[in-house]
Design a protein that fits this description.
- The complex is a heterodimer.
- Helices cover 26% and strands 35% of the residues of chain A.
- By secondary structure, chain A is an alpha+beta fold.
- Chain A has one domain: Ribosomal Protein S5, domain 2.
- In chain A, strands 1, 2, 3, 4, 5 and 6 form a six-stranded mixed sheet that branches. Chain A has a four-stranded antiparallel sheet with strand order 10-9-11-12, sandwiched between helices.
- Chain A is elongated, with a radius of gyration of 19 Å.
- Chain A starts with a helix and ends with a helix.
- By secondary structure, chain B is α+β, with helices and mostly antiparallel strands.
- Chain B has a single domain, classed as Ribosomal Protein S5, domain 2.
- The longest helix of chain B has 29 residues.
- Classes of the chains: A alpha+beta, B alpha+beta.
- At the A-B interface, strand 3, strand 6 and strand 8 of A face strand 3 and strand 5 of B.
Chain lengths: 260, 240
């Protein structure tokens, strides 16, 4: 982005004014649509739109071997691909560090909140478990991919149905669904709060993200914090963090309603 | 030639395309974009450029370079997850997609640059490379490039001796059809993509190309309609 427009956006934000005239805590109305991918391709799916930002998430379920240290638990793999289709800033090639961070932050909220009952994903202890793959693709980046990807991943998990599995032959029949959903225990919802100067804001546009001093992603489940990630070069005071957590709790309530 | 008993599992006539949906400008951050759905196959194409080409030794001082990238999303296949990132298959498809589009686009005004076309498959049921090319052609037009004509693509198949257009994944993989993906230009009817997998007689092959020609005309009508909806004024100037 041109330096002049970045300077302008930054100077406005430091006065508490947003370029698009939203208030600092105003979330752009998120739209969540489940089952956007044909069930013959994906066992569960969802699309999240937050203004210009659009992401699609798909769940794939397959039967595999458990990790040796958790013989009676299923596994989760979360992957966000920053495909160059979605933004002139994204490039082809192996995932860069931004994509790795994004994947891991989305993963952490699901994993650490205990969103899925991993024991119920066990087919036969020590031998066979369900592996849950959550793949998330931004289609257009207009900011706030952290929250959009997290929300899409949860909506896709809610939508997912197991394919039929024959325990005797060990064959998964992807062409017929069992109509049984995933063992969901609770729904973690993430909100990322940005700090620019002395101001805090949620749901940043792409341009506002370029202006950040620091960001804090806070995932909330059952009224508790279940995961956090600080980003950006700027430091946060204890007071900053208190304020950002309060803001995140308020925003996640709004986002949670989109899943119900 | 064709036996009377054979019928397609989805009930389509042999020369019937699956239901289609098109949308132009689906990726606002891109310079041009389009979605193309045919049956259960959905492709999105986004165009970025002309922009600086790296690494620099690949630059062409005479004209801009068209670079295509085809990718299936991890959840887009039926059955097991597709591992993300390029594969030998996707690299080859990217290459033939480039060749399918190169002849209709004039990049002589943009030396030393690259025009990137990114094609993503959201869900698949056969004919993915053809859907990608059809979407990409619309995305290039949406980006405003000077194009001699449009490109449309379809896969034609032979199921035993029956020639059918627009193969589904079931017809391609389970019924082991001869698969012939073909891309054709809209005006001159030049063939810009031609691949073939399977055994087929010469007569049947040429009959298949004729079938593709008809199908590509129908596809082009759908492409042109979607572009005219977005550009009611400048349809001809944009080479549509």
């Amino acid at each position: 982005m041109a330096n002049k427009s970045l300077d302008y956006i930054t100077s406005l934000l430091q006065k508490g004014i947003r370029f698009d005239e939203r208030s600092l805590e105003a979330y752009r109305e998120p739209i969540v649509v489940e089952r956007v991918i044909s069930p013959r391709s994906s066992e569960g799916s969802a699309r999240v739109k937050i203004a210009g930002t659009e992401v699609v998430a798909g769940v794939k379920l397959s039967v595999g071997e458990p990790y040796p240290d958790t013989p009676d638990e299923g596994s989760i793999v979360v992957n966000v691909e920053l495909i160059p289709l979605a933004s002139p800033e994204f490039e082809t090639g192996p995932p860069d560090v931004a994509a790795v961070e994004l994947s891991r932050v989305v993963d952490r909220a699901i994993r650490e909140s205990g969103a899925l009952d991993m024991k119920k994903l066990c087919v036969k202890s020590g031998e066979k478990i369900w592996m849950v793959f959550i793949d998330i693709y931004p289609l257009n980046d207009n900011g706030n991919l952290f929250d959009a990807c997290a929300l899409a991943s949860i909506a896709a998990l809610q939508d997912a149905k197991f394919p039929k599995y024959d325990a005797k032959t060990g064959i998964v029949d992807y062409s017929s669904s069992s109509n049984k959903g995933l063992p969901i225990v609770r729904l973690p919802i993430s909100c990322t709060v940005l700090k620019v100067g002395q101001q805090y804001l949620v749901d940043p546009s792409f341009e506002e993200e370029q202006a950040l001093d620091a960001r804090l992603t806070i995932a909330v489940a059952d009224g508790k914090i279940c995961a956090m990630q600080k980003g950006g070069d700027g430091a946060l005071t204890f007071e900053d963090i208190q304020k950002m957590v309060d803001i995140a709790f308020r925003s996640t309530e709004l986002l949670r309603r989109k899943l119900e | 030639m064709a036996s009377k008993k054979f019928s397609r599992s989805d009930g389509r006539a042999f020369d019937q395309l699956r239901p289609m949906e098109t949308r132009v400008g689906v990726i606002p951050r891109a310079d041009g974009s389009a979605l193309f759905r045919i049956g259960n196959t959905v492709a999105i194409a986004a165009v970025y450029g002309p922009r600086a080409f790296h690494p620099t030794f690949l630059r062409n001082p005479e004209r801009g370079v068209l670079r295509c990238n085809y990718n299936m999303m991890a959840f887009s296949g039926s059955g097991e997850r597709v591992r993300p990132g390029p594969s030998r298959r996707s690299r080859e498809i990217s290459l033939v997609t480039e060749k399918a589009l190169n002849s209709v686009i004039d990049l002589s005004e943009f030396p030393n640059t690259v025009v990137d076309v990114f094609i993503e498959l959201l869900q698949t049921d056969g004919g993915t490379r053809c859907a990608g090319i059809t979407a990409a052609s619309m995305a290039l037009a949406d980006a405003g490039f000077l194009m001699k004509e449009m490109v449309s693509a379809v896969s034609v198949g032979a199921l035993e001796d029956n020639l059918v257009v627009d193969l589904t994944s079931e017809e391609d993989c389970e019924l082991k059809a001869v698969d012939i993906p073909i891309a054709m230009t809209s005006r001159s009817k030049n063939i810009t993509l031609l691949q073939l997998d399977g055994m087929i007689s010469k007569d049947n092959f040429f009959a298949a190309v004729e079938l593709a020609k008809k199908a590509c005309s129908a596809l082009h009508d759908v492409q042109a309609k979607a572009l005219r909806e977005k550009y009611p004024q400048g349809a001809d100037e944009n080479g549509k």
